[in-house]
Structure formats: C-alpha cells, structure tokens
Amino acid sequence: MPKSISISKQLASVKALRKCSDLEKAIATTALIFRNSSDSEGKLEKATVKDLLQTQFGNFTEGQETKPKYREILSELDEHTENKLDFEDFMILLLSITVMSDLLQNIWSVKIMK
C-alpha cells in the first residue's frame, strides 16, 4: 500500500495556495482532509466522520459529550438518511460543533490587542 502524502505537502503542491490567507489555508486543509478520507463518490461514511471528529477535531469535541446540543448534533448524524456525508454536510457539522464548543469560548477570550 502506498504511503500517503502529508497534508502540508499536498497544500504546498497547490500553486493558488502559496500566497493565500490563513483562513484560506484552513479551509483548504479541511477540504484535503475530507478528500483524503472520502470514498470514490466523494463522501464520508458515518464511522469515518466520527473517527475524524476524534482524531482531527478532538480539541473542539473534548468535554462536549454531556452537553444536550452536542448529543443532538451526533443524534442528527446518526439519523442522517444517507449513511454518508458530502463536503457541505461535513462543513456544517464542523461549524455546528465549533460554535457550541468550550474551545471557541477560550479562543474568544484571547487578547488580540497590546
């Protein structure tokens, strides 16, 4: 089985990203992680989504397990009519978790001015 190329090397190989903003790199990184984990149809299995939430998004999901909103989000994922998520659904899931996370509250408290 061939060894996968790191996300940073994949990002570096896209010429348009060489002069892009931090936000553009963040979205591009998310897109590459999605693509690297998706099936041939460009979708993620629910089990893969849950694995990515633990391995790639753990700082945002940590401590959220007891929150009703988090449980509701995961329940909606489990009840999703398709067993797979496309990129749009995946991004909505990440944003939903981000908005309710404790980590976001910590980020908001970061001092941005001297």
Short description:
The chain is mainly α and 114 residues long.
Structure description:
It is a single chain. By secondary structure, the chain is mainly alpha-helical. Helix content is 61%, strand content 4%. It has helices at residues 7-12, 22-37, 46-55, 58-61, 68-79, 87-100, 102-108, and strands spanning 44-45, 84-85. Helix 5 (68-79) packs antiparallel against helix 6 (87-100). The longest helix has 16 residues, at 22-37. It is flat and about 40 Å long.
List strands and helices in order, with pairings.
Blueprint: H1 7-12, H2 22-37, E1 44-45, H3 46-55, H4 58-61, H5 68-79, E2 84-85, H6 87-100, H7 102-108
Helix pairs in contact: 5-6
Index terms:
single chain, 4% strand, 2 strands, two-stranded antiparallel sheet, 7 helices, flat, 114 residues
Structural class: mainly alpha
Oligomer state of the chains in this structure: single chain
Largest sheet: 2 strands, antiparallel
Helix percentage range: 55-70%
Topology pattern, helix = H, strand = E: HHEHHHEHH
Strand order within the widest beta sheet: 1-2
The N- to C-terminal Cα distance equals 51 Å
Task: Give the helix tally.
Answer: 7
Estimated radius of gyration: 16 Å
- Tally the beta strands: 2
- The outline comes out as flat
Q: Mean pLDDT, rounded to whole units?
A: 87
Instruction: State the low-pLDDT regions, or none.
Output: none
Question: Which strand-content bin applies to the residues?
Answer: under 5%
